[in-house]
TrEMBL record:
GO terms for molecular function: sequence-specific DNA binding. This is AsnC family regulatory protein. GO terms for cellular component: cytosol. Residues 37-97 form the HTH asnC-type domain. The keyword Transcription applies. It comes from Bifidobacterium boum. Pfam families: AsnC_trans_reg, HTH_AsnC-type. Keywords: DNA-binding, Transcription, Transcription regulation. GO terms for biological process: response to amino acid.
Length: 181
C-alpha cells in the first residue's frame, strides 16, 4: 500500500526536529508553513492522499497547473515538512507479528524523555497525550519476546514512571485520506 502522511499539528513537526512548541523561533516557520496551504496546494494534497503515486501531470489537470508547477509545489510542501510521501507497508508481511500501543506515565522533563524514546529502535510513533497517560507509543516487533525486551528498555529510561501495553489483535482499518482544512 502506498500513501502519505500529512501532519495535522505543525507543532508536532517542530518537536520532531528539536524545537519546543513554545519556542519563539517557531512563529515565523509556522506562518511560512501555513502560507503554503493555499487552496491549490490543498487540492494537490487531496489528490496525493488518493494515490501517492499519481503522476504530477494528472494532478495538474485536476488543479489547473502544469506538471512542472505541481512538482515544484509538492517539493516545497515536502521541504516545509507539511507532507511526506512514503510507502505505507503491512507490518505483518514484513515480519512484525506483534504490534502494540504503549501508554507511558512520566516524571520530569517530557522533552528529554521523548528524545530518549526517539533513539529507541522499535518505536514507530510517539505522541504527548492528555488524559490517563503522558505519552503514547506505537511499536512493532517480531514477537512477544521482542516486545517484552522493548518494554523493558523503555522502562529503564530515566523519567519513565509507568507503562501499560495494549497489544493489537487485528488491524481493522488504517486510513490516510482524512483531507485538509
Amino acid at each position: 500500500m502506498v500513501g502519505m502522511r500529512v501532519q495535522h499539528d505543525i507543532h508536532e513537526s517542530f518537536a520532531a526536529n528539536g524545537f519546543s512548541a513554545v519556542d519563539a523561533n517557531t512563529a515565523p516557520l509556522e506562518s511560512h508553513k501555513s502560507s503554503l496551504l493555499d487552496d491549490t496546494n490543498k487540492a494537490i494534497i487531496r489528490e496525493l492522499q488518493k494515490s501517492g503515486r499519481k503522476p504530477y501531470g494528472a494532478i495538474g489537470k485536476v488543479v489547473g497547473l502544469s506538471e512542472a508547477a505541481v512538482r515544484g509545489r509538492v517539493q516545497r510542501l515536502v521541504e516545509a515538512g507539511i507532507i511526506q510521501i512514503v510507502a505505507v507497508t503491512d507490518p505483518i508481511q514484513l515480519g512484525y507479528r506483534r504490534q502494540a500501543l504503549i501508554g507511558v506515565n512520566t516524571t520530569g522533563d517530557l522533552d528529554a524523555i521523548a528524545a530518549r524514546l526517539r533513539e529507541t529502535d522499535g518505536i514507530d510513533y510517539i505522541v504527548a497525550a492528555a488524559g490517563r497517560f503522558d505519552m503514547l507509543l506505537e511499536v512493532f516487533t517480531a514477537d512477544d519476546d521482542e516486545l517484552l525486551d522493548l518494554v523493558m528498555r523503555i522502562r529503564k529510561i530515566p523519567g519513565v514512571d509507568h507503562t501499560e501495553v495494549f497489544t493489537y489483535l487485528r488491524l481493522i482499518e488504517q486510513r490516510y485520506d482524512f483531507g485538509v482544512r
